[in-house]
Design goal:
Elements (H helix, E strand, L loop, with lengths): L3 E5 L4 H17 L2 E8 L1 H10 L11 H37 L3 E7 L2 H12 L3 E5 L13 H9 L3 E5 L27 E5 L4 H17 L2 E8 L3 H10 L4 H7 L1 H33 L4 E7 L2 H12 L3 E5 L14 H9 L4 E4 L6 H9 L4 H7 L7 H14 L3
Parallel strand pairs: 1-2, 1-4, 2-3, 4-5, 6-7, 6-9, 7-8, 9-10
Antiparallel strand pairs: 5-10
Helix pairs in contact: 1-3, 2-3, 4-5, 9-14, 10-11, 12-14
Length: 395
């Protein structure tokens, strides 16, 4: 599954835990482990030149200044390389103990730029990194390197957010804050499902991990029937009489209340049912949870309540355009706020039922015309639901 695992290190608590978690994965998948440290010698050189004017007068003579520059460059480069080797040595020792092949890498440059470039050029299957590094302070939610790598990497990224419990700490996140979990879900992988190929890819990744590590799988799906109420409430007071007639406000509002809100629950339940079928086909029992509200908030609340071993989600979801890069809004929010380790996946999976329906069902001109009455932002969801209903009824 993960043949090469990449771990950027900086000797921080979260980085060290990333090494431990990565090697645990590596043992199961017999992975090649790559450790990386990026040092910024060029940045130090730039800063030294900026500060040259502050040197004592005897060092400002051009010949002496040139000598100092060479000494500084040599010491900084050699020193940072030695530090990098020291940071990578613990990972090498752990990999040796686990019988895993280890490759060290040291690079000079901007941290996230070099890491993302290396990921793209080397094609690692998985990157494991701590949510924050040595620059963390009390109110840090996510480190700049982690945030930028998670946003821009084009491969799976596992963000380590949980530290081993320390003496006197109330939970396992290493910060001593009071635990919020109401139940112990450490034997469960929680996976977000919204009907997109990305979410079904996340599901299959979660299933593979569950079978490898002996975990349970819970799929969570969230629909939002409340959004249009806020939209219509804001629109009703600004529409002119002519605009109201064209928009057909009352009809649109009634359409949402009578059809879309009720249908959304059924559609997202069908996503969970399809997920259950996919899990059953590979011999995994799936727990299903359907909630209503803002997607990331409900997933976050549920994760805090159950405290899963890991949360697995696709980088983007059902409302994302094919041309979009980066993270979807729900993934972005969960990256910052999720209390457990978070796996952002790139795998795409197309359920057999959806593929069969799209290939075998043809729309009449009348059906296409009526379908245009469905608001554009939910047409993809509605089309999938109709396909599934047609197949289930034998069409």
């Amino acid at each position: 599954m993960y043949k090469t695992i990449y771990v950027p290190v900086d000797n921080s608590d979260y980085s060290n835990q990333a090494i431990t978690s990565a090697v645990e994965l590596g043992r199961k998948f017999d992975s090649t482990m790559v450790g990386c440290h990026v040092y910024a010698a060029s940045m130090h050189d730039y800063r030294f030149k900026q500060m040259e004017y502050t040197l004592p007068d005897e060092y400002l003579e051009e010949t002496e200044l040139d000598r100092q520059r060479k000494i500084h460059d040599s010491l900084i480069t050699m020193g940072l390389e030695l530090i990098s080797e020291s940071y990578l040595e613990p990972m090498k020792a752990v990999c040796d103990d686990a019988g895993l092949e280890f490759e060290p890498k040291m690079m000079d440059g901007k941290h996230h730029v070099e890491i993302v470039r290396d990921i793209r050029e080397s094609g690692y299957d998985l990157t494991v990194l701590g949510v924050m590094g040595i620059g963390r302070v009390r109110d840090t939610q996510i480190g700049s390197v982690c945030e930028r790598v998670a946003r821009t990497a084009d491969r799976d990224v596992l963000v380590i957010k949980r530290l081993p419990a320390k003496a006197g700490a109330a939970n396992g996140n290493g910060n001593g804050h009071q635990a919020e979990a109401e139940t112990d879900g450490r034997d469960t992988i929680l996976v977000g499902v919204d009907g997109s190929p990305q979410s079904f890819g996340a599901l299959m990744t979660a299933i593979d991990l569950a079978k490898t590590f002996g975990k349970k799988v819970e799929a969570i799906s969230v629909y939002d029937p409340y959004l249009h109420y806020s939209v219509f409430k804001g629109v009703v007071n600004v529409l002119t009489e002519r605009a109201a007639k064209i928009f057909r406000f009352e009809e649109q509002n009634q359409l949402h209340e009578e059809i879309i809100d009720t249908g959304l629950a059924q559609i997202y339940q069908s996503h969970l049912d399809v997920a259950e079928t996919m899990a059953t086909e590979v011999g995994v029992e799936l727990t299903k949870t359907l909630l209503d509200g803002k997607a990331f908030q409900k997933v976050l609340d549920h994760a805090r309540k159950m405290d899963p071993w890991m949360l697995v989600i696709g980088r983007v979801g059902v409302h994302s355009d094919d041309s979009e890069s980066g993270l979807g809004s729900n993934a972005e929010n969960l990256l910052r706020a999720c209390p457990c380790d978070l796996l952002l996946t790139t795998r795409l999976e197309y359920p057999e039922l959806d593929v069969k329906a799209e290939e075998s069902i043809r729309w009449t001109p009348e059906a296409e015309e009526r379908f245009k009455r469905v608001p554009e932002q939910v047409r993809g969801i509605a089309r999938t639901a109709l396909y599934r209903l047609a197949v289930e009824q034998g069409h």
